[in-house]
User: What shape does this take?
Amino acid sequence: MFKSCSSLNDIEPLKNWDVSNCINFSDMFSVCFSLKDIKALENWNVSNCTNFSGMFFGCYSINDIKPLENWNILKGTDFSSMFFGCLSLKDMKPLEKWNLTKENNFKDAFESQNIDD
Assistant: This one.
């Protein structure tokens, strides 16, 4: 949806989006190099989503994923490359609350190599 929007840095207008019926968030913010603050996603209802692959792929500037800590990702099966290339991300603790009971794909989910656009 916002893939390769390298200048995108304000997603506050998405704060009240109803995403409760969405099942696929793959590559949604992929290669949004300038995106740093994802607090607007804090109250998103992602409980029906199964695919989070590459959602924040190449988002160099994101350094805080605490807004995602209360996401209900119980139906999620694909988290591959979700945070691939998030070079500023240092603390994964917020994800400790995630309930991962399915067969989950986390291939390269937190790989931190540079991504060229």
The chain has one domain: 21-117. The CA atoms of residues 81 and 109 lie 4 Å apart.
